[in-house]
Every structure is written in structure tokens, then in C-alpha cells.
């Protein structure tokens, strides 16, 4: 199903910017990524190179088969994240990281501030956002 504006018209390509989902192999992240893909948005997913979990590998494969583009790296590497955001012209960043990785988002937020492409940053865990602002 393609997303539409409230008036029923379809967004044009310039209104459906590139989206990066972080934490896409987790429970919430998988559904967020599927929704982005189902809306027709070009969707990138950031995957840690060190992930050895068979269930996470299965989820990543499923999302790839649906059209997600995999980028291997870490949100803790600010320079790498800046490069990804610029190179792929990411306009929307959705972070669904949780647990011990929540505070790792600070490097990501700094990267977002340093590039001029990101229009929207959403994080599924308000603690990381509030902590950063304080």
C-alpha cells in the first residue's frame, strides 16, 4: 500500500526522501522498516557487522528481500555516520535501538547535526533524546 497525503494525492518523489532505520533487526525496528518499505520510501538499514544472531540475520534477509538496502557499520562512529547520511542523502532517520545501545545514539545525533540532509530524526526511546538535550 502506497502512502497518500490527507487530501488523497500521492506524494511525489521529492517528498519521499531516503530513510535510514537503525535497529531494524529488533522487534520494533522490523515493523518500522516494513512500514517504510510498504510506503514506497527508499529505505536503508544500518546493520552492525558483528551481529551473529541467526534470528537477526533472518530478519535482515527478510527486509532485504522486501527492498531494504543494507549499510554495515556502527552508530558510534560519527565520521562513518556523517558519510552515510551525506552519501545516501538521508532525509529521515528513525532509531529503534534499545537496551545498552540507547546512549550510542549521541554520536548519531552529532552526525545528524553536522550534515545538511536530515529533516526528521525520530527515536523510539525518549530517554536518549531527553538525556542529550539536558
UniProtKB/TrEMBL annotation:
<feature type="domain" description="NmrA-like">
    <location>
        <begin position="18"/>
        <end position="129"/>
    </location>
</feature>
<dbReference type="InterPro" id="IPR036291">
    <property type="entry name" value="NAD(P)-bd_dom_sf"/>
</dbReference>
<protein>
    <recommendedName>
        <fullName>NmrA-like domain-containing protein</fullName>
    </recommendedName>
</protein>
<dbReference type="InterPro" id="IPR008030">
    <property type="entry name" value="NmrA-like"/>
</dbReference>
<dbReference type="InterPro" id="IPR050608">
    <property type="entry name" value="NmrA-type/Isoflavone_red_sf"/>
</dbReference>
<dbReference type="Pfam" id="PF05368">
    <property type="entry name" value="NmrA"/>
</dbReference>
Amino acid at each position: 500500500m502506497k502512502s497518500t497525503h490527507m487530501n488523497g494525492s500521492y506524494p511525489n518523489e521529492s517528498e519521499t526522501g531516503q530513510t535510514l532505520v537503525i535497529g531494524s533487526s529488533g522487534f520494533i525496528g522490523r515493523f518500522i522498516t516494513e512500514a517504510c518499505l510498504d510506503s514506497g520510501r527508499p529505505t536503508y538499514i544500518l546493520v552492525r557487522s558483528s551481529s551473529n544472531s541467526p534470528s537477526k540475520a533472518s530478519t535482515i534477509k527478510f527486509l532485504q528481500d522486501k527492498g531494504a538496502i543494507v549499510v554495515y557499520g556502527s552508530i558510534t562512529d560519527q565520521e562513518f555516520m556523517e558519510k552515510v547520511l551525506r552519501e545516501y542523502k538521508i532525509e529521515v532517520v528513525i532509531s529503534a535501538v534499545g537496551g545498552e545501545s540507547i546512549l550510542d545514539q549521541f554520536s548519531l545525533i552529532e552526525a545528524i547535526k553536522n550534515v545538511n540532509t536530515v529533516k526528521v530524526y525520530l527515536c523510539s526511546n525518549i530517554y536518549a533524546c531527553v538525556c542529550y538535550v539536558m
